[in-house]
From TrEMBL:
Residues 211-281 form the DNA-binding transcriptional repressor CapW C-terminal dimerisation domain. Residues 8-90 form the DNA-binding transcriptional repressor CapW winged helix-turn-helix domain. It comes from Vibrio albus. This is WYL domain-containing protein. Residues 125-188 form the WYL domain. InterPro entries: CapW-like (IPR016634), CapW_CTD (IPR059020), CBASS_pafABC_assoc_protein (IPR051534), WHD_CapW (IPR059019), WYL_dom (IPR026881).
């Protein structure tokens, strides 16, 4: 069935499945905005997708002004993994759909080293997204390494974030009276939507404020080695400037493997190739 469809049609079917599964609501606008097509074409694509199954996997629901997946819905053109949807969110602003794991159009071989995906139930993402869109409180069950027993808490989510290693939701925690990061794979059971909240992301100062730091090659490397590292990051004669939200700085530091411990920098310069010009300012932002 897949081989009989055009490449463009398969791409649109992938989007249909990803949005329906993870948002729980599909509209023609999803297709129109993503592929720059007219509403009539989007409707034909949805109807075409439906016609390929003995039992249509989507139901038109007037209460949500769109389509919702049936209880028997199973992805056919996608894998049904959370990374497909979350990657699509991450890349949507760049109109880049390779988050859908589309095969390369070229002939040159390439390979991406992947790690096992963390398991996330679609209903968790659906409820968190709805709460974020509607600025509502949500009652969730959550576990962590410091609190391994399931505990209920109320949060007000505002943004889903990929930190380079895993996905989390940035949310206000009523128990801690602070904005915190909650790993998506550590939610348990179905979140319960509550009432609207006056707390918005604009009150999350670590999210709204930006920090800037200068990344340089480890000065304990030889000059030749430093030049190689500088070329890696396009530093040339200037430091590599990173500007990001304060709440995300620690993830940049971790992903770039930046070290601010002078003893480690001196003892193992090949292991710790990057540092910053002002370690005192960046150190409080480091992940423990």
């Amino acid at each position: 069935m897949k081989n009989e469809l055009s490449w463009d049609t398969q791409l649109r079917f992938k989007l249909i499945e990803v949005v329906a599964l993870w948002e729980g609501r599909l509209t023609t606008n999803h297709l129109c905005n993503s592929f720059n097509i007219k509403r009539q074409q989007a409707s034909r694509d949805i109807n075409h997708y439906q016609s390929l199954f003995e039992e249509p996997p989507l139901i038109h629901d007037r209460s949500i002004k769109g389509y919702r997946p049936t209880a028997a819905f199973k992805p056919t053109y996608t894998k049904g993994t959370p990374d497909e949807y979350l990657s699509l969110l991450h890349r949507y602003s760049d109109n880049d759909l390779d988050g859908l794991n589309i095969n390369s159009l070229g002939n040159a071989e390439s390979f991406v080293v992947s790690v096992p995906e963390r398991k996330v139930d679609p209903i968790i993402i659906q409820r968190l997204l709805q709460a974020a869109r509607e600025q509502r409180r949500v009652d969730v069950d959550y576990v962590s390494l410091s609190q391994p027993v399931i505990r209920g808490r109320n949060i007000i989510p505002h943004t889903i974030v990929f930190d380079g290693f895993r996905w989390h939701v940035r949310a206000y925690c009523e128990e801690r009276n602070a904005f915190r990061d909650f790993v998506l794979s550590r939610f348990r059971n179905e979140p319960e939507l509550l009432d609207k909240s006056d707390i918005s992301k604009h009150l999350d100062h670590d999210w709204m404020d930006e920090v800037t730091f200068e990344v340089i090659a480890n000065p304990y490397l030889s000059s030749e080695q430093q030049q190689i590292v500088q070329d890696d990051y396009g530093m040339r004669s200037n430091p590599f400037i990173v500007t990001c939200r304060k709440a995300l700085a620690k993830y940049f530091v971790k992903r770039l493997d930046i070290c601010v411990d002078n003893r480690k920098l001196q003892k193992s310069p090949k292991r710790y190739q990057l540092t910053v010009t002002d370690p005192k300012n960046i150190r409080p932002l480091m992940i423990d």
